[in-house]
Known about the structure:
The protein is α+β, with helices and mostly antiparallel strands. Among the domains are: 5-26 and 60-172, Ku70, Chain: A, Domain 2; 187-226, no CATH class. Helix content is 27%, strand content 26%. The protein has 6 helices and 11 strands. The protein has helices spanning 76-87, 120-133, 187-200, 212-226, 247-261, 275-282; strands at 5-11, 14-22, 47-48, 53-54, 62-67, 70-74, 91-98, 107-115, 135-143, 146-155, 158-164. Strands 1-2-8-11-10-9-7 form a 7-stranded mixed beta barrel. It has a two-stranded antiparallel sheet with strand order 3-4. The termini are far apart. The model is unreliable at 277-284 (pLDDT under 50).
Amino acid sequence: xHTMWKGTISFGLVNIPVKxxxxxxxxxxxLRQLHKECESxxxxxxxxxxxxxxxxxxxxxxxxxxxxxxFVILDEEELKALQxxxxxxAVEIMDFVKLEEIDPIYFEKSxxxxxxxxGSKAYGLLRTALKDTGKIGIAKMMIRSKxxxxxxxxYENTLVVExxxxxxxxxxxxxxxxxxxxxxxxxxxxxxxxxxxxxLTTEFEPEKYTDEYRTALLELIEQKKNNEEITTxxxxxxxxxxxxxxxxxxxxxxxxxxxxxxxxPKQPQKKKKKTTSRKKQTGT
Length: 284
């Protein structure tokens, strides 16, 4: 399992060297976009609308838009320094709380923790303490250039980090439109709804839930492959230097060619000076 992060988790004076691994994976079937006419993949380019040309990665800087078309440019070295300052800190568990006190709306992504060299004993200590008390730890940590609020808990004998949203990242529920304050419902309807819930209540078994759409989509793709309903992208040949993008090159080449082909102008013949004029000037 790939290690995403290495660091130290501490609670009190106990330090636990750990490695972090992604606990989940996205299995969405990714579909490419093709040009319908020639069935070639669509190309997305980074283009500057002012310079009207494609931009290379080393020409791009990061900035924060604090108002419409007003930016503060942030140097890459400044960002790296901030990230390193926070990333070098040990992940300290600040508080211990009960898991049921955190609403699921706060949860974001899960990561497994494994002990790093020499950390097995301290890892086991924290795992047992969390199990016995039924508590989870609240901590902050740097993950992928962002300071994350996280909980540390036990999942099937393994410590897990669950990143959670900060309170200001959860939108105010009062802003949800058209939510009725109170709805008058007949008692019989409520009782019937409760009976239905009771009948459908069971133990949670995650294995019985599958992504039926993804399964059907993969089956459709495989069926089309077997029936040879496939296409092969054509090789893209480099464009000939024509059009407005090469206008200056074309003009310069035409000018150079015209200069070479233009005949050299004849040198004017020098006129012979008359001696009579000289004699008149000297008076002889």
